[in-house]
């Protein structure tokens, strides 16, 4: 955004220069030189948090199908880390949860009242959760700052997410939150699977496809936490993942279309399974928690070796493209300035300018053309900014949990 305001400053300077050019054609050369200088001063100042990257704490984002046991698993994680003298910081991102069975350091419900959001925007439950998350995402840099300030005293950051998995994993806010964590700390995804409900091979396949899509979307190390092993052991799932023939055998008497598809998909997913860590846990009884945390530590190492490098590469590439785009725009502006010579030129300020006959130099697709994701985010941020106060407090926890300025 800083670059945008600089762009506007440059536009203002350019506008002043252009107007004075019209009034005094004799000073044309000098002014256009000044204009060039002011453009050259426009630095592309992309802030990158990669230099502030910390190896600790490890962020565990708990996702999974509705009712798979995410919140219960979180409670067990909180209890287990506490009992093992491990220091954890707990964040709840589910605005619709009625009661939390653990104490959260940051709770989205303290900031956004989901029922009020539903009323105010005339939304259903899913729309309410999505909008609440979007509102919270606009303040997520503050959450990261709070966690960063405590980083030295923490081993894990535990994050619970809404029941409707797609709201988190496929929304812009979910992506923003995940990326904000991953660009500051090693971050892993714990995908909670309802083991007893996955004993049917077709249901198992549909669950694995979901996990696979999350891996694609987040590009973060993923751990499968087969939950509710107090009801059903997860051995069958491990066998199906290790040996597709065992999976095919489970589908033996089923000749339906879905089974044929599941058979084919199991061959495709072989590669996906090989790169996964899987553990069996019971969020209710607490079995398997040590193994799960070992898998988390292994995945955090993996994050530092592979994922972090990939993340840095993607960020550098994005920055390079952005710089190229801005340089191209500046070049166009420079050419237009030369072409317009002494004529009066009105620059677009982004507001609707009805002045007839005026030539707009900055108007045009190029200036506003943005990366699609970024554009979407900015548009929603702008809409949201209209809805929130501008108050910014300096407190840390208080700021995040109570005074973020949402009117809900
Ligand atoms: N037997 C058994 N039940 C469990 C286990 N973990 C969770 N449950 C039960 O599963 C139900 C759903 O658990 P939650 O923790 O609310 O699941 P969730 O994924 O957070 O649910 P949403 O947030 O609504 O998607 C509850 O009745 C839990 O008691 C477990 O390990 N064993
Ligand atoms: Mg829950």
UniProtKB/TrEMBL annotation:
Subcellular location: Cytoplasm; Nucleus
Annotated keywords: Cytoplasm, GTP-binding, Hydrolase, Nucleotide-binding
Biased composition (Acidic residues): 365-400
Keyword Hydrolase attached: yes
Membrane-crossing segments per the record: none
Domain AAA+ ATPase: 56-195
Any GO MF annotation of the entry: GTPase activity
EC number, UniProt record: 3.6.5.-
Region (Disordered): 1-49, 317-408
UniProt cross-references to Pfam families, sorted A to Z: ATP_bind_1
Subunit composition and interactions: Binds to RNA polymerase II.
Function per UniProt: Small GTPase required for proper nuclear import of RNA polymerase II (RNAPII). May act at an RNAP assembly step prior to nuclear import.
PANTHER family, per database record: GPN-LOOP GTPASE 1 (PTHR21231:SF8), XPA-BINDING PROTEIN 1-RELATED (PTHR21231)
Similarity comment: family membership: Belongs to the GPN-loop GTPase family.
Name recorded for this polypeptide: GPN-loop GTPase
